[in-house]
Amino acid sequence: MPNRPAPLPTPRLPMTPVLSWASVARGRGARVPSILDAGPARLVTSGRIAIALALREMGIGPGDVVLVPAWHSLSMIPPVLWRGATPLFYKLGMDAAVDLDDVAAKLDARVKAIMVTHYFGVPQDIARIRAFCDAHGLLLLEDCAHCFFGEHAGRPVGSFGDYAIGSSMKFFPIFEGGCLVSARHALKAPPLRSAGLGFEAKIALASLENSFAHGRLAPVKAMLWLPMKLKDLAWRTLKARRAGAGAATAALAPSSSDSSAEFEPAWLDKRSSWFSRTMLRLVSRPRIVAQRRRNYQALQRALGGLPGCRPLYPALPDGACPWLFPMLVDEPDRLAARLKDAAVPVVRFGQHQWPGVDAAVCPNSAALAHGVLAFPCHQDLLPHELASMIARIAQALQP
Question: Which CATH class is domain 284-396?
Fold first, then answer.
């Protein structure tokens, strides 16, 4: 057996977008459609909060059934349970397309709504799904958590559902953010309110600290060195005092900011931070889309022909803006371990499924949950960072 190759030296790679001077530079190109073009929007702190609000707007309640894709994020399920409803999981193809035959077989008087996910930024055949829902009296919740930008059949993503949800923190250099949109219904929920000064400061500082940690905004880091040190000292002192008094330290930001699957109803009436809402206006959207497509295609060219893996999607559709670059891998656990050793950021979306959802429910979904490894392709990867990541993935794929 050949010796395992030594990991390549590499810079620390940002998993998510990182604020930099380039983030707010004017992007070139035409205006790009997004979920925010689909209709009036509520800017909230996460996609899961938006799901809960959408289900409430739909009138989903005890005794109702909500159809959910068998390949899913764990965070999609607690909002359904919060409404007292039951999730029922439907099948997908190996390309993650909705199996409408299976959906039709599951319909009965209790089924009120279906969640449809646009995986990794590639839209489903959502016009066909919309027609199916209209024919069966089914409410459609369009899950654009992976698909903030893009269009289908000449319309923005999010405009086909009765309601649509998005996750802005997957596409912008921010620490929290989601949205609820409806192209078909007025949003009835009461106005959102701020989560307070602590939350506002936490989000702005966390976004800046992420930037500093990856070598961006060096002059700003130098100017804020002392205030940041004083902030760290004050926070450590506060936590120590509370711990000594036996009191819990209240969270200043939702757990979704730290990739937890937890659902926190306390955030249902909170609006996204001022910092995040400002970034939605200032950050160049044409740059986001163009650079993500460019990075995705670079990954596809470099890795698409290597043994033991294949891109989940043979080609990136025109107009699609990817969240990540997903590959279907023959030996995912082995490769994931190698990538961890090589410090390559990787996402295994849906690896952990809701209890009871396994290959017996949907063999394709189980295969995707186990076999898909996804890599960052966001707009803030620098050329040398992208090249380094490609080299390390290629090396990890060697026998």
Answer: alpha beta
